[in-house]
Amino acid sequence: MTLKRRFIVLSLLLLVGTIVLSYFVVQRYHSKIPVLNRMFSSETNSTNTVVFPYEGLQPESNDPNGIYYENRVIVLMYHDLDPDPIEVSTLSVANFEKQLELMRDNNFHWITMSQYRDFILHSAPVPVNAVLLTFDDGYESLYKYAYPILQKYQAPASSFLIVNSIDNPKHYGMKKVSWEQVQLMQKNGIEFFSHTYDSHTYLPADESNEKQVAMLADKIYLKDQKRQETEQEYVQRVTKDLSEANDLLHEKLGIQNNVLAFPFGGFSKSLLKVCKDLGIDITLTVKAGINKPGQYNGFRVNAGGMTNDPVLQLSLMKHGKKLLGGIHFDDTAKARHYTLSSFVVLVVIGAVWLWTAIRLIAARRRQLRA
Question: What's the pLDDT band for 155 if we cut at 50, 70, 90?
Fold first, then answer.
């Protein structure tokens, strides 16, 4: 290859390398640049932001034959239900039933957790517009209000229990279901899984108490020892908690638990490894998104709360592929690796380009002198 051709090829590679590096830099650092951050925040399919829940959505007519997404599953997340909610996180019973009615009338199909696991782990087929209904914490309202409506619509659902809170009058918080109620619901289409044994809270991460962390997702401050726990202690603690939850679920319900919903959606790489070691092959967060095969750590769309609008909730689901399909979890380490690798490659190309340019200029000068 002549010097001129080599220079042209290297120039093109330098241009492409600059574009690639710029892409990774913008992806990683756009939040620190106000103009770029505004641009990214306005995109509905950006990595970290989704226009949610209802911005830009309009009520739509029922379509009993509509196909809105295929080979994907939307997982809906609920907490407490009440006829007259007073807490912001509580969904009205009427709105919950309206959601199910609209899903039924618009060709959405409810699936079981078993179907979801086969879909995620083995790419097993699921119906078009597949939906998995999930309830966190095991509130009494699951049995009192949700269960009768689920039976009415013949809708399967899954519930994640804070296992130590069941039939435990000393446990803090809102009243939970009993084991008797859980066992009855289990016989009639409701599946139960772990929401930890008793790690559903925030705790201080340092002496100042200013930084609070989800205790399952991060190392906590040991007040009696005046230090933060080590990584080994953290792993031992969460392993013990999840093992106790699994053991009691097996004792009470006869199930081998393989699904976990993270409290507050928080997780760490160490926690994901602990889950794998314990045979928990499916985990769920609280980040909105749509799930496809291989999404072992899953997304969930919050369908609860006082402000829920069932009609617009349905519109969000109908446009789930567009609005939620581009969401993914940040991987800072991977982003840093790609950015650094692109920079190194660009520096090497730039050095070879400069050396070739100097040789080319020298060759042309020799030609002129001749």
Answer: very high
| Multiple choice CATH, 49-58+66-324, 3.20.20.370, 3.30.360.10, 3.30.70.20, 2.40.50.100 | 3.20.20.370
- Averaged over 61-80, what is the pLDDT? 97
Domain ranges (residues) in the chain: 3-38+332-369, 49-58+66-324
Residue written as tokens 């009615």? Answer: 101
Q: And the tokens for 116? A: 């979801």
221-222 vs 227-228, strand pairing mode: antiparallel
pLDDT for 20: 80
Structure tokens at 244: 């106790």
Contact 213, 182 (CB under 8 A): no
Name the residue type at position 254. Answer: G
Distances (CA, A) of 23 to 11, 29, 119, 219, 328: 18, 10, 33, 34, 17
Three-class DSSP category at 172:
coil
Three-state secondary structure of 266-316: CCCHHHHHHHHHCCCCEEECCCCCCECCCCCEECCEECCCCCCCHHHHHHH
Instruction: Quote the longest CA-to-CA distance of the chain.
Output: 100
